[in-house]
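INFO batch 0412 | record 1 of 1 | parsing
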Amino acid sequence: MRQTKNNYQIAISALNTARNDHYDGANAIYRLSARKNVPMEISRSNLLNYVKGLVENLSVQEVIANKVNIHKGFIEVEYYPKGYQMVMTKGQYVGLHLEFAEFIEKTNILGLEVQKTFLEDEPDYTVRAVANQEINFFPEFNSKCFGTSDRRTIEVNRCSTDLVWEVA
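INFO prediction complete | emitting tokens
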């Protein structure tokens, strides 16, 4: 069963769990991410096939993911901002998360959920060295603001030392 309500609840949880420096108007957004749990006992060949299918599915979405990170027990999908994306208020930040949750739901990838851990990431401090004209103060979750620019390339990383094989 799809967990539609859960993704929106996670997005709204940013009201209480996000770091203040994520929406203070001084730091840029570092990333948004989602995760998909996979059985711990999945075989190497089944996991490889699943990752290949996931990457193919992610490659045809409106916003193309930047990275797929394979961990033991789950796969993380990361979306990085294009340029500098900055929000000024907590409400604007939560609105962006709700757009991200809606996007995740529309992918129709069963079990793909908004990941909460990115709410604790360090923000992008490099924005402090750029002119205001280079910053988008009204980001939306769309292909103009997030994702890879190269529609063909999603980086795939093996992040667990327990995974002793290569993903091609």
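INFO post-check: The chain has one domain: 4-158.
INFO record closed
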